[in-house]
Amino acid sequence: MQPHPAIPPFEPPPLLATITESGRRILWIVGVYRAVCGALLLGTAIFFDLRTIDIGAPNAFLTAAGLYFMFGMAAFWWVQRESLLLPLPALLLSLLFGDIFFIALLMYAGGSAGGPLSILLFPQLAASGWLMRTQIAFFHAALASSVLIALDSWRLIDGLIPPTQILQTGLVGFGYFATVGIALALGRYTKASEDLAAQRGIDIANLEQVNRLIIQDMQDGVLVVDLNGVVRGHNAQVTRLLGGFGRMRGGMRLAEFSSTLHDYWRRWQEDFAEPLPPFKVEATQRLLRVRLVRIGSGLNGGTLIYLEDLGRAQSEAQQIKLAAMGRLTASIAHEVRNPLSAINQAAQLLEEDRVVAPEGQRLLSMIRNNAKRIDRIVGEVLQLNRRDRQQPEVISYNEFMHSLVDEIAQAEGVPPGGVLIQDAKDLLVIFDRGHLNQIVWNLVRNAWQHCQKKDASIRIVIRPGYMGDAVICEIADDGPGIPAELRGQIFEPFFTTRPGGTGLGLYIARELADANGAALELLPKGPGANFRMTLKRAVDPALK
User: Fold this and answer.
1) Pairing relation of β-strands 458-464 and 470-477?
2) What are the phi and psi torsion angles at 408 (to 5°)?
3) Distance separating alpha carbons of residues 99 and 428, to the nearest angstrom
4) CA-based, 20 to 30 A from 60: which of 74, 186, 388, 424?
5) 284-305 pLDDT tens trace
6) What's phi and psi for 283, nearest 5 deg?
7) Could you report the per-residue pLDDT of 49-98, keeping only the tens digit for each?
């Protein structure tokens, strides 16, 4: 036979060594009750003739009432202190000792009329059971019952009380135990409720933090609007989509965020079934789809407003198509380079052998120039497949930009002072150095080709982002700018307004930025073209 498993020993709940805020309130209430009882007894002893109510020793009763009142005031001052100096069990036992001692004095001095004073101990014993929440609280009831029964036994021997008083005192003692038991059960139930409420509060706080992180990481913009049209919260994507950097904050009216959104919200409040068409934001040139969802009910309800960037959805669909096209064009590009190399070599040999008549030199030059142009296009097409081969590193953006701009100026013939850099110190970014070199080179070269070619015709502003986790680089020129009708096409592949251009420069720049977790966009402000690149900021190792 297998032995029965050992029964674990009973382990009572641990005693509360410290006192909670609710426990302090209970001590405060009992302290007020004790002081009021002492004041009423003292007032009765002073302003009434105690002999008329059968008080056996009026002077002793007056002295005991005065002492009990002073004890009540001292105990009330004690429980008001920030530090109680004693653990909770010792504090409750000390206060109960004082209550029993002074009430016993009053009962002895009161003679037969002092018997009912034993009921004054019920609130103190109830507080002991509720606060201690362990079986030790029954010791307080036993102590009070034992002292009062012993006192009445002594008074019965002296002939101060009738024999029936002993029975009444016994019933009061039974009431003490019942009061402690009920208070103990209620205290344990309250403690379980408090623990459950605290755990629920932690769970809700954790859930709220998870929801906040999810909302902040969403690609869609999210706004929470109350019934009065006040924005109670929004994620960072809202400022990116609506273009209100540094201006938007919770507590603003929805109309201050966007008058169009406010109009949509008002129309939706009137008719939930009304379809809401997408709208274009002038500040960011983004096409947004709006979706509204009711949350809550009654006066506590509100609205969730989702902003979906249709341009992003279209861009993702385009990326899928371009990925397939990129693989196809890459294989074709490799095949084109072989005959292209043969054409270049043949043209070079014809030029070296001087077998071409002078009037044919112009045709030979056209062959060489167009062969170089085809080779450049093939090279840019091949770069489309290299966007996912980034090798990110921590780069000091300030030093990188100054060094690169000097190199660009020498290669592109930009005179000193043609590029003005305004930067903040100690900005580190995480980026592939080769990709960043190619993006900035393309933007600066385009800016120089279209600017007025004066001092500070190209302005580069580098600053930390508003949230502190990004670095913003804006490259602007003083040229004619990009026409409004062409702004939505400049990042499309093979779109160009410059004769001889391939139309792949800005498209590749945005692709490389996206591959490194950055964003490249054209800002609507002028004069000239103004491009903004938002990069991931790296933490300075010295600050960790």
Assistant:
1) antiparallel
2) -65, -40
3) 71
4) 74
5) 667 888 888 888 766 567 888 8
6) -70, -35
7) 777 777 778 888 888 889 989 998 998 888 888 777 778 888 888 888 88
Q: Which of 61-70, 123-132, 145-154, 495-504 has the lowest mean pLDDT?
A: 495-504
Query: Containing H/E element for 26?
Result: helix 21-47
**What letter does residue 541 receive in the DSSP assignment?**
G
Contact 447, 458 (CB under 8 A): yes
DSSP 486: G
Residues 17-48: b if buried by 16+ CB within 10 A, e if exposed: eebeeebeebbeebbebbbebbeebbeebeee
pTM of structure: 0.44
Q: What tokens does 385 get?
A: 């497949």
Nearest to 272 by CA among 285, 291, 254, 287: 291
Q: Write down the pLDDT at residue 70.
A: 92
Contacts of 243 (CB under 8 A, 6+ apart): 281, 283, 284
Q: Does the pLDDT value for residue 9 go beyond 70?
A: no
DSSP state of 528: S
More confident residue, 372 or 430: 430
- CA trace torsion 419, 423, 425, 428 (10° rounding): -90
Taking a C-beta distance cutoff of 8 angstroms, is the pair 451, 458 a contact? yes
Closest Cα partner for 394 from 519, 531, 542, 216? 542
Q: Residue 475: what pLDDT?
A: 92
Question: Residue 23: which of 183, 166, 174 has the closest Cα?
Answer: 183
Which pairing describes strands 458-464 and 419-422: parallel, antiparallel, or unpaired?
Answer: parallel
Asked whether the bond before 527 is cis by omega within 30 degrees of 0, the reply is yes
**Alpha-carbon gap, residue 109 to 65, rounded angstroms:** 10
Of the listed ranges 88-92, 182-186, 363-367, the one predicted with least confidence:
363-367
Q: What is the mean pLDDT of the chain?
A: 80
Q: How many other β-carbons are positioned within 10 Å of the β-carbon of residue 457?
A: 22
- Res. 467: pLDDT tops 80: no
How far apart (Å, rounded) are the C-alpha atoms in residues 199 and 57? 57
CA–CA distance, 14 with 36 (Å, rounded to integer): 33
Q: 384: which DSSP letter?
A: G
Radius of gyration of the chain (CA): 43
pLDDT digits (tens, 9 = 90+) for 228-265: 888 888 887 887 787 765 456 667 888 887 888 888 89
Concatenate the DSSP letters of all residues of 102-167 into one string.
HHHHHHHHHGGGGGGGGGGGHHHHHHHHHHH-STTHHHHHHHHHHHHHHHHHHHHHTTSS-THHHH
Alpha-carbon distance of 486 to 482, in angstroms, equals 7
Distance between CA atoms of residues 445 and 414, nearest Å: 9
11 by DSSP, 3-state: which? coil
Distance in angstroms (rounded) separating the CA atoms of residues 309 and 241: 7
Give residue 375's identity as a one-letter amino acid code. Answer: D
Q: Hey, CA dihedral for 236, 239, 240, 244, is it positive or negative?
A: negative
Among 481, 417, 471, residue whose Cα is nearest residue 447 = 481
d(CA 144, CA 293): 64
The token duo for 469 is 């986790």
